[in-house]
Write a structure and sequence with these properties.
Largest sheet: 6 strands, mixed
Number of strands: 6
Number of helices: 5
Strand order of the largest sheet: 3-2-1-4-5-6
């Protein structure tokens, strides 16, 4: 299982990655918030945002000795989706859209035979509703910035 993170920019271009580990809303939303708020380039540039999401997730896992023993952090954490359909493997889908200055998100939970929207609203509201710990350590992001 895993999740798909889709970002649709103001021009309608879609970017998406598949995430294999820690894909529940409280985990993914936590990481989205950290990268959006703690790096110089947030969701306004989806390519750099997703690159930072992947980089800081892997860096955090590499720094965590327990995680390093369980997983090989350089493999099988994210996959760039391109045109392939990963929906059948995803337990959740996160669709982030940039509408002018507003950032919105829809979260879908997929079951055996149906999908259900469990949240639709502003990204800041999602930050409040789904608090938790994801893959990324906020301290590592702060230390890595120069």
């Amino acid at each position: 299982m895993g999740c798909i993170i889709r970002i649709i920019d103001v021009g309608g271009i879609e970017y998406k990655v598949y995430r294999y580990k820690k894909y529940k809303p409280e985990e993914v939303i936590s990481d989205i918030r950290i990268i959006d708020e703690k790096t110089d380039v947030g969701l306004e540039d989806p390519e750099i945002f997703l690159s930072n999401l992947i980089f800081y997730s892997m860096l955090t896992m590499y720094e965590d000795e327990e995680e390093k023993r369980k997983y090989r952090p350089w493999e099988y954490l994210y996959r760039i989706c391109g045109n392939k359909d990963y929906n059948r493997f995803a337990e959740y889908t996160y669709i982030i859209s940039l509408e002018g200055m507003e950032k919105r998100i829809e979260i879908y939970k997929h079951g055996f035979d149906k999908s259900e929207c469990i949240f639709s609203g502003k990204l800041k509201e999602a930050y409040e509703k789904f608090k938790g710990k994801g893959l990324i350590d906020e301290k590592i992001v702060s230390l890595a910035r120069w």
